[in-house]
Amino acid sequence: MKKTITTSKQLFFTFAVGIALLAAGCANEESTQAPPQQEKDSSTLVDLGNVKLDISELPFGADTEGETRTEGKAIATDTIGLCNGIEAEVSLEREQLPATRTVKQGLSDGSYRLAVYQSNTFKKQIGFTVSGGKITHLERLALPTGTYDFYCCNDKVQFDEPQNKFRVEFDNAATGLIGSLKNVHVSGVDQTLNFPMKHVGARVKTRLTALMPFPSDVQAKLVSVPNGALGDMVYDIPTGVYSATKLRTLDFPTSNYAAVADVYDPGLKANLYARESSEYRYVLQNTTLTNLMLHFTSTGELYRKAMNAYGSVRISSSKQYMLAGHSYVLRVKLRPTFRYLFQDGTVGYLRDKGNRMPVALVLNRHLGIALTDSHIGTDYVPSYTSGGVLRGNWSVTGQQDNDHFFPLTDWNATITTATSGAHWTWAPTGTFNHTNPAYNGSKGDKREIYPAFYWADAYREEMKTKCTNEGKAFDSNLLTQKGRWFLPSVNEWMQLLKNVGFSNPNSLFAPGGVATGAPISVWYNVLIVRQAFIVAGGAPLWDDTDPQGRYYWTSTEGSTPDKAYIITTRPDWNFFLSDQKKNLTGFPITYTKAFRVRAFVTFSNTAVHPHKPGSTEDGWGSDPDQNISGDDFEVDL
């Protein structure tokens, strides 16, 4: 007997779900999407006689409906080195969508098979088709009184009745559906039972974020290690256990990544640039995360390196599995990574720090910058008296103080001259021979005469005290002896500008080599600079609440006795070079309060690292040198 049944209709919201691939994401980006459209909810009523099954197809991610978990909570998070100077923070999350979109749908067009079991013994099966919202089943199924288990699958799933198994091949991971309803008591009373059909596979979408604009063309594909994915999925009806009988190597087609709304990063207090894959990729349930990788194929450069030169991004080192019907987002936060100088005199990446404590951000082979501003007690502004008004002075002599000065009309020489601030801070010969002997000798020892120079060594004392309090052994050459931490020159600040700020110091050259006397500014990447400091427990080079930024003294002196050079770092992406009076007495406190000292350190006589070559922090021996702006040293970019 042939009977036609129409589908029931109710109001519903579309539910869109996805397994997205990406590093470090945030709920804000989801809120930028357009609100879901209201549509009709549907299910499919199959009349078996004294039992009616109201069958619905649950969309991917419908399992999140009504959950109270925190949105964006990562299932697995890892930090992975991609190549020298670039790493990925990778997190896999269940995609959180509005509950209004997690409603059931009617069955898709196609063929279906319904099997009935009693006490794990096969009793009956019927087939039916769905087309245009209508179904046709082949016969009426009248069951005698008893308790039964009902199973249903679509034509993407093979039903092996003799073996009591359902089998789904990998190619059907996106479309295979299986549903079950167990321990149903059937009697002479008509009853209608809700019967959900669920996807056997899981789906993944990737979202990339970066601290600078992506190249115009971004492409990547999801792959696996050899035989790293399940080739099929078999459901054993008597035991209720899923298993696989074969493996396969994944190599999905390349996906294009389109620009999407910027993603807010609460740690950086800023929006990150974002791209998202153009489609979902589907795998079978129980696929292990650690076997899957994202491989970039485009040649455009991000952080000064072609993206196809990055190593593959392994989704997770976790042994967790992807679950049936779940929709995931893989968030991949691509960021430059830097080496740090640790308290024991070694150099390496934070991911390898172990019990070591970072004390400086490495700028090149021999130079680092302190992670925080120098201070004495609670005083961050250099001063020549304790407890008095903080003047922010460079010196109080009113005379030439260095053995070499730079004309204020030729800033090119100021920028390019490589004399280290260590010479002007600690070498007695770096101080001009004054007639007043109290002004001579190492400036770093003379708070009353050279406050800014004296302030530079305060950071060393702070780090030594911190190590002592925390019981950490430290390199005495680095933290006990004076002379390694100093007030940096303009040229040394340029190393931060180009190697961390991703900028070009040449833009600070005055036209024709003649300075106008007004500050000259250049763009720099404040996101990367901020991240480089805060991930190591440091502080950025500005106060977000003060638009004037910070004024950092350099050790470079101008050609008039009352001038020295300062670096101004602001959160509005502007980096300034200018000159300033060395003695700020009389200037308003609203201005002088922003003067700071950020000490630099030389570690050329320090061991590079404790690890063997070939580790993730293999010193500089096996890393290729880069020649940036004519400075041939290796940088971690």
Task: Describe this structure as you would to a colleague.
The protein has 637 residues and is mostly beta strands. Helix content is 10%, strand content 37%. The chain has 8 helices and 43 strands. The strands form 8 sheets. Strands 3, 6, 7, 16, 17, 22, 23, 24, 25, 26, 29 and 30 form a 12-stranded mixed sheet that branches. A 10-stranded mixed sheet has the order 1-10-9-8-11-14-15-5-4-2, with no helix packed on it. The protein has a 6-stranded antiparallel sheet with strand order 32-31-33-34-41-35. 45% of the residues are buried.
* Shape assignment: elongated
Count all strands and give the number: 43
Number of helices: 8
Largest sheet report: 12 strands, mixed
Question: What is the CA-atom radius of gyration, in angstroms?
Answer: 33 Å
Structural class by secondary-structure content: mainly beta
Question: In oligomeric terms, what are we looking at?
Answer: single chain
Provide the low-confidence segments as ranges.
Answer: 1-40, 64-71, 605-637
What is the mean predicted local confidence, pLDDT? 83
Outline the fold blueprint:
Elements: E1 3-6, E2 8-13, E3 21-22, H1 27-31, E4 38-47, E5 51-57, E6 74-83, E7 86-94, E8 110-118, E9 121-131, E10 134-137, E11 146-154, E12 158-160, E13 165-169, E14 177-186, E15 191-199, E16 201-210, E17 219-224, E18 229-230, E19 232-236, E20 241-243, E21 247-248, E22 255-259, E23 263-265, E24 270-277, E25 281-284, E26 292-296, E27 301-302, E28 305-306, E29 313-314, E30 327-336, E31 339-342, E32 347-349, E33 358-362, E34 367-370, H2 411-416, H3 421-426, H4 451-470, H5 476-479, E35 485-486, H6 490-499, E36 520-523, H7 526-534, E37 550-557, E38 563-569, E39 574-581, H8 589-592, E40 595-596, E41 600-602, E42 626-628, E43 631-633
Parallel strand pairs: 5-15, 16-30, 37-40
Antiparallel strand pairs: 1-10, 2-4, 3-7, 4-5, 6-7, 7-30, 8-9, 8-11, 9-10, 11-14, 12-13, 13-19, 14-15, 16-24, 16-25, 17-22, 17-26, 18-21, 19-20, 22-24, 23-24, 26-29, 27-28, 31-32, 31-33, 33-34, 34-41, 35-41, 36-39, 37-38, 38-39, 42-43
